[in-house]
Amino acid sequence: MYSELDLKKYDYFEGSEINYVLDSLTGVISRQYILDYAKRLIEKKIPFAMCMIDLDNFKYINDNYGHNSGDICLKDVAEALRVCVGDDGLVGRFGGDEFIIVYTKANDYDSIHDFLARLYTQDGAVRKYIYLDKVRVFLTATMGCASYPNDAKDYDELFLKMDKALYRGKIKGRNCYIIYVHEKHKDIIVKERGGNSLLSKLQDIEKIVDEDSGPALITHITDYLYRVLHPFNAIIIDKKNNIQSGNDTRNYYFGNNAYFMLDKMLKHQDVFPSSNPGEIIEKFPETTNIIVSRKIHAFVVVRIKKFGFIIIYENNVTRMWQDFDLALLYFAANLLKDKLEKEQNK
After folding, report:
1. In terms of residue numbers, what domain contains 90?
2. pTM of the prediction?
3. What's the CA gap between 199 and 142, in Å, rounded?
């Protein structure tokens, strides 16, 4: 944990009571003070990088081993981060299983990359075994980072871009770090921190299906999934190989046997996720043209029974599909099926 001697190195903490400055559980800087410290650096126009760290699947540890074990993990990670950062910045606890690093040694991409890579490899601060009472758990974390003034001119913009980078890391499958790059990440729409339960999203989809019909329904469903999951390409192919796209109006070439190819790929499955296009090409050579021409790195196909398929895919970036993503897609497909059947029977 940080000591009074550690804090005396910083003018910002002069005259502050250490019990208020430090988080009572982990001994790193408390939320208010770490965020205010970042704001003070911006006021003084001092360059720095700001990183958000989110421990992966931390709820599993609390649920299976108890909150005391969770606290042990939090304290272990906090201390490891404090030691790794040293005099090159400060570590704070944002709340729950999230930490903040204000890194003042450098703010260029290469330096930040080297620093974050060290946390995952050489120092193992956020990818490590932690020994509890009768078990050891392997703990990983996802990190997002942005820098001032390279990426942002004020605190709110900096925090948003850091959050976008973190969100991108979660989408990729967690256990990784993402440094904000404007060309890659500017269009990311971060999920709201509140009201983001699976139930609320299913209800949103249900509402869309209730209110819309025909082509508008397809557009609204794909646009909604685009906003909730992350910018991607979303299209629908029916049994006649007709193609409908909600958010991307480019021409697609899937060949005249697209439906049969997808049916063969899924066999008896309703959902087929993949993050390995090479493996798909090997099993289904007929997909080569699609995957190569569209530079597809990850995709998921969901069957709309008696109608066709929803295809969601990412260009140029690997993505690990989460249970949350697949649940939304499967639910949307089944609602679409019911709605389309009703419309056809009118």
Report:
1. 4-185
2. 0.66
3. 25
Cα(4)–Cα(19) distance, rounded to whole angstroms?
A: 10
Buried b (16+ CB within 10 A) or exposed e, 251-271: ebebeeebbebbeebeeeebb
Q: CB count, 10 Å around CB of 308?
A: 25
33 with 175, same domain?
yes
Question: What 8-state DSSP symbol labels residue 121?
Answer: T
Measured distance CA(147)–CA(116) in Å, rounded: 13
- Do residue 333 and residue 219 come from a single domain? yes
Of 136, 142, 29, which Cα lies nearest the Cα of 90? Answer: 29
Domain boundary among 154, 185, 216: 185
Pair 259, 238: CB distance under 8 Å: yes
- The predicted-structure confidence for 171-196, as pLDDT tens digits, reads as follows 888 899 999 999 988 888 776 544 45
Question: Alpha-carbon dihedral of residues 163, 167, 172, 177, nearest 10 degrees?
Answer: 20
Rounded to whole angstroms, the Cα distance separating 285 from 274 reads 15
Q: How far apart are CA 107 and CA 300, in angstroms?
A: 37
* CA–CA gap between residue 186 and residue 54 (Å, rounded): 21
